[in-house]
Amino acid sequence: KLDEARVQIGFGKNSLSFVEEMGRRGPRKRGGDEDVEVESCLEFEIDKGLVESELMKRLRIGYEWLKNVEQGVRNEDKLKASNYAKSLGSDWIVKHQNPQIRLLVACNLSELLRVFAPNAPFSARMEKSIFELFIRQLAGIDHIEGEFFEWHCQLLHRLSNLRAFVIVLHHEELIADLFKCIYSSVLPQHSFKIQASFELILSSILEELGNEIPESILESALAPLADSSGEYRAEAHSLAASVLRKSETYLQKPVSSLLRSILVEGNSSGSELAENLDQLLSSLADISSNFLLFSIADLERDLSLDDVSLRAAAVNRVGALLSTQKTDLISAYPALFHAFTKRIVDTDPNIRAAVCTFSGTILKFHASA
Questions:
Q1: Residue 40 gets which letter from DSSP?
Q2: Could you check whether the bond before residue 118 is cis, i.e. omega within 30 degrees of 0?
Q3: Please, what sign has the CA dihedral across residues 7, 9, 14, 20?
Q4: Is residue 160 within 8 Å of residue 148, measured between CB atoms?
Q5: Which candidate in 139, 277, 286, 306 could, as Cys together with 326 as Cys, close a disulfide (CB 3.0–4.6 Å)?
Q6: Could you give the 3-state DSSP secondary structure of residue 152?
Q7: Please, what sign has the CA dihedral across residues 227, 232, 237, 242?
Q8: Which residues have a Cβ under 8 Å from the Cβ of 80 and sit 6 or more positions away?
Q9: Are strands 34-35 and 8-9 parallel, antiparallel or unpaired?
Q10: What DSSP line would sit under 305-338, residue for residue?
Q11: What is the dihedral of CA 299, 276, 190, 136, to 10 degrees?
């Protein structure tokens, strides 16, 4: 019975149980006391000799059949699914020239991941190519009027529910590309379910990596928050903020470390986010003041630098942070606020003027502080 068969489905720390997933797949026809497949298993074979129309037909049949194969199955269906996985886990079909065939292949492979979870049903040699295929197909979800939009959605939801990308965390460039792909694909017209699936994919990756997140992936995760040129849509910024908020426990230390590196070394830190540090700090402050915890000492130090231009830049940076409406940084970091107010008697008149300007905004939003 399902209550007794809590078979693991998916990958990573918070994978779904078989019972939970069956609930999502909806009801199945019943015969007597036993479950009966909605459709009988249709024979299908995949090979290079098939014309494209026949290949697409068989891929559709295979996909519909796979959706009714239970995860962790141990009967003849598993053997058929295993043989099917071998035929799909080949370069010629994963990299097929027909985009519709590639989409159908990706959908089939995502179902095969479910059936064989927590073990991948394809060779390690094909792992990267298959997940590159997944990423390219996820990018198609921004074509909301497209004929195959629903197929892209089904792929997204399956990969999201499985937390499939934790399999390839060792491919840093691949994961960084995934973040860029999703941030570039999210649209205001997307449903809550689509946006929630995007968030689950990204947050599950950050949760799995924890404090050991590589800098390339961290920078990709933060990119929309540092965007001041309009490269990303507002929805990408909102998505990134939701992901960071959900992953705050795991990201506070690596984010703080990255910020300190940029504050101390500037552009020489090698970070692509260095040029838009002020925007990044402001966005992070709006999400949670905790992200700035280990950067406060550096911000205070910069307010007292001997170099006037650097000190002025620090005053503008801290003033903007203290003026943010969403987060009360004055209460969170009173020492930083006091260091800022001391600049009211700075020897440079432009710095004194800047402090006065920011003070008006601070009083408007945080008078009680």
A1: P
A2: yes
A3: negative
A4: no
A5: 286
A6: helix
A7: negative
A8: 41
A9: unpaired
A10: -SSHHHHHHHHHHHHHHHT-SS--HHHH-HHHHH
A11: -120
SS3 percent helix, strand, coil of the chain, rounded to 5, is 70, 0, 30
- Give the span between the Cα atoms of 251 and 127, in whole angstroms: 27
- Measured torsion, CA atoms of residues 319, 324, 328, 330, in degrees rounded to the nearest 10: 10
Distance between terminal CA atoms of the chain? 59
Q: Report the C-alpha gap between 211 and 259 in whole angstroms.
A: 15
- The full DSSP string for 274-310 is GGGHHHHHHHHHHH-GGGGGGGHHHHHHHTT-SSHHH
Write out pLDDT tens, residues 180-190.
Answer: 999 999 999 99
Angle at 120 between CA 66 and CA 106, to 5 degrees: 50
